[in-house]
Write the structure tokens for this entry.
Amino acid sequence: MANSASLTRRSIRKFTGEKLSEALLDEILKAGFASPTAKNTQLWEFVVVDDMNILNAFKEVHRFSMPLIHAGLGILVCGDLNKEEHEGYWIGDCAAAIQNMLIRIEELELGACWIGVYPNEDRMAVLEKTLNLPEHIKPMGFIAVGHPDEKKAPSDRYDPEKVHRNGW
Ligand SMILES: Cc1cc2nc3c(=O)[nH]c(=O)nc-3n(C[C@H](O)[C@H](O)[C@H](O)COP(=O)(O)O)c2cc1C
């Protein structure tokens, strides 16, 4: 069972520069659309960004976003607040989509890194402006994705002391 993509996935920040094919991009996006959402609102929207001007503008407000520059491509997951049934659930919905795609990316033997956006207001504002996002579309998180140029061993963070049953 140790080869499950959910167990071997790591954050990859170095990429070969080889362009991601549209077919692979589509495979990844399908995993986003397969993710769970509260009340099945499917409130996510996915913005594929490979315009280096936009990725560089984002770098100005987020110095740990270099994986996006190295990958040359990012998938920004946004939430449509008009579709939200319960306030605040959009964040979990978008996070689930991101994680589903990260696992699919691992299965496809590609590399990816989650790049944080929400709740940082500067990062959100730059993306809202450069991508012309409508008022009700909120950027939650970016995935830098591409062909990996580094390998990482699976993490070994299992800690039974952090597992509780029927209380603390
Ligand atoms: C909400 C969130 C935001 C993150 N933001 C960034 C980021 O902006 N830049 C980055 O290089 N890594 C980012 N990461 C990746 C974490 O640094 C990484 O998951 C963590 O160090 C554990 O390493 P692993 O993913 O290889 O297991 C983020 C992860 C999460 C879940």
